[in-house]
Design goal:
253 residues; KR_dom; alpha/beta; Sc_DH/Rdtase_CS; seven-stranded parallel β-sheet; Rossmann fold
Length: 253
């Protein structure tokens, strides 16, 4: 019950890592504002009434104001913000459209920036030593062909997090990243063909694709008081994917 009497906002909460994070926070005592464009999957609320569903597009320029207004209307402070919302558009670099570029940046990076700014202002006003956790990707540091807008946003998110951490530290607010590797989510399932899965299993040292709950555990650690002395950090949760330089199926002799 690390989050008893805490209030958390989780974006991208309808599925995947966002849903797993919101569920874990509820189970550990938090009141959770679960934010998504729309909520399609039924919730089994383990929080005994502590779940608040909000339909909100984080790319909407009015989204931060709408969220803050809802928190104030509910007379709630906010202790935790988990920026999990993200989208992926697949196209070769030479064929990426302006519309896809703009939409991916609007959701994955711009939305996270301005939502963090709005929530951090609430934390500062309430003198709350809050936690902001941004969900990046292994592809911030490892190339992902045919996903240039996505990789750009994840690299930008990590750089942004370090600056946030520096500027918010005087207020006792921490900002950190989780960097997942291959994870089974509603976004990734369409591209996880049998061939891709076999290749990932050969490439990942721990040999498996993660369920979203494994990544949510890391998000919740950085959102908790156990991580009170960690800020500006990026925690890899990728089964060793990014650090491994071996050649699958071969060895130097």
């Amino acid at each position: 019950m690390r989050f008893s009497d805490k209030v958390a906002v989780v974006t991208g909460a309808d599925s995947g890592i966002g849903r797993a994070t919101a569920t874990r926070l509820l189970a550990e005592g938090a009141t959770v504002y679960a934010v998504d464009v729309h909520h399609t999957d039924p919730w089994q609320d383990p929080g005994a009434g502590r779940l608040r569903l909000i339909n909100l597009d984080v790319a909407d320029p009015t989204a931060p104001e709408q969220l803050v207004t809802r928190l104030r209307d509910d007379d709630q402070r906010v202790d935790v913000l988990a920026n999990v919302a993200g989208i992926l558009r697949i196209a070769p670099f030479l064929e990426v459209s302006r519309d896809d570029w703009d939409r991916v940046l609007a959701v994955n990076l711009t939305g996270a920036f301005f939502l963090s700014q709005a929530v951090a202002r609430v934390m500062v006003d309430n003198k709350t030593a809050g936690r902001i956790v941004n969900v990046s990707s292994v592809h911030a540091v490892v190339s992902e062909p045919n996903a240039a807008p996505y990789t750009a946003t994840k690299g930008g998110l990590e750089a942004m997090t370090r600056t946030m951490a520096s500027e918010l530290a005087p207020y006792g607010i921490t900002a950190n990243c989780v960097r997942p590797g291959a994870t089974r989510t509603r976004m990734s399932e369409p591209i996880y063909t049998p061939q891709i899965v076999r290749s990932l299993q050969a490439k990942i040292p721990l040999g498996t694709i993660a369920p979203p709950e494994w990544v949510a555990s890391a998000v919740c650690y950085l959102a908790s008081d156990e991580a009170c002395y960690t800020t500006g950090a990026c925690l890899d949760v990728d089964g060793g994917y990014a650090m491994d330089g071996s050649l699958p199926g071969t060895a130097y002799s």
